[in-house]
Design a protein that fits this description.
The complex is a heterodimer of chains A (about 110) and B (about 120). Chain A is mainly β and about 110 residues long. Chain A has no helices and nine strands. In chain A, strands 1, 3, 4, 7, 8 and 9 form a six-stranded mixed beta sheet that branches. In chain A, strands 2-6-5 form a three-stranded antiparallel beta sheet, with no helix packed on it. In chain A, strand 7 and strand 8 form a beta hairpin. Chain A is globular and about 40 Å long. The N and C termini of chain A lie far apart (about 35 Å). Chain B has about 120 residues and is mainly β. Helices cover about 0% and strands about 50% of the residues of chain B. In chain B, strands 2, 4, 5, 6, 9, 10 and 11 form a seven-stranded mixed beta sheet that branches. Chain B has a four-stranded antiparallel beta sheet with strand order 1-3-8-7, with no helix packed on it. The chains are: A mainly beta (about 110), B mainly beta (about 120).
Chain lengths: ~110, ~120
C-alpha cells in the first residue's frame, strides 16, 4: 500500500499546458485501467476530474485529459486558467476493492 | 443529486474511540460499495477502508487494520466508521465516498468530518 509518486508542485502561466505524472507499480497503475484524478481546492472535498485513465465526467472541461503508459499515468491541463490552481491527486485501483492515492501535486497558475 | 454528509468528528484523547457516520442521499445506497478516505492536516489523501454494497466484504489500510471497523445500515442509508485506540497520527479530515457505478473509482465525496486526537 505505498503511495503513488507525484511531483510536489508544478506551475504554468495562463494559456499554457502542464502535465502531472503519477508513478506506481504493476500492482496498481500498471495493472488496471482504473486511474482517476481529483482536483481539490483549499478546504473543499476532492472533485473527480478524470476516471478510467482518460475519461471525463460530465461537466468537466475538455481542457483536462489523462493518459497512461506502463506504470505511469499523467494528467494534462491545457489552456491554464486561474481557477485551475489547486491540489491534484491521482488514484489507482489496487485490487480487492482497495485504492492507493498519490501524494498530491500543487498546481500554481503564475 | 448525490449527497454524502459526515458527522461524529471532534477532539478526542489518545486511546479513546469515536464513531463516524455518513448519511447518503440522491442514489440507491444499497447498490454501491462505500469508502472512508482521510486527509491529515496539510497532507495528502489516504484510503482507509471499503465495504461492499451488502456489507459482506470489508478491507482496511494496514495503518488502521485492527483498530477501525467499517459498517453500513442500508435501511438507514448510513455508513459508519468505528475508530478505536486513536493515535495522534489519526488526526485528519475523514471523508465518506461512493464508488462509481460502472468503474472502480470514487466518484462522489462528502465534505468530511474532522477528528483531532490530542491530550
Amino acid at each position: 500500500q505505498s503511495a503513488l509518486t507525484q511531483p510536489a508542485s508544478v506551475s504554468g502561466s495562463p494559456g499554457q499546458s502542464i502535465t502531472i505524472s503519477c508513478t506506481g507499480t504493476s500492482s496498481d497503475v500498471g495493472g488496471y485501467d482504473y486511474v482517476s484524478w481529483y482536483q481539490q481546492h483549499p478546504g473543499k472535498a476532492p472533485k473527480l476530474m478524470i476516471y478510467d485513465v482518460s475519461k471525463r465526467p460530465s461537466g468537466v472541461s475538455n481542457r483536462f485529459s489523462g493518459s497512461k503508459s506502463g506504470n505511469t499515468a499523467s494528467l494534462t491541463v491545457s489552456g491554464l486558467q486561474a481557477e485551475d490552481e489547486a491540489d491534484y491527486y491521482c488514484c489507482s485501483y489496487a485490487g480487492s476493492s482497495t485504492f492507493v492515492f498519490g501524494g498530491g501535486t500543487k498546481l500554481t497558475v503564475l | 443529486q448525490v449527497q454524502l454528509v459526515e458527522s461524529g468528528g471532534g477532539v478526542v484523547q489518545p486511546g479513546r474511540s469515536l464513531r463516524l457516520s455518513c448519511v447518503a442521499s440522491g442514489f440507491t445506497f444499497s447498490n454501491y460499495a462505500m469508502y472512508w478516505v482521510r486527509q491529515a492536516p496539510g497532507k495528502g489523501l489516504e484510503w482507509v477502508a471499503v465495504i461492499s454494497y451488502d456489507g459482506s466484504n470489508k478491507y482496511y489500510a494496514d495503518s488502521v487494520k485492527g483498530r477501525f471497523t467499517i459498517a453500513r445500515d442500508n435501511s438507514k442509508n448510513t455508513l459508519y466508521l468505528q475508530v478505536n485506540s486513536l493515535r495522534a497520527e489519526d488526526t485528519a479530515v475523514y471523508y465518506c465516498a461512493k464508488r462509481a457505478e460502472t468503474s472502480a473509482v470514487i466518484d462522489y465525496w462528502g465534505q468530511g468530518t474532522l477528528v483531532t486526537v490530542s491530550s
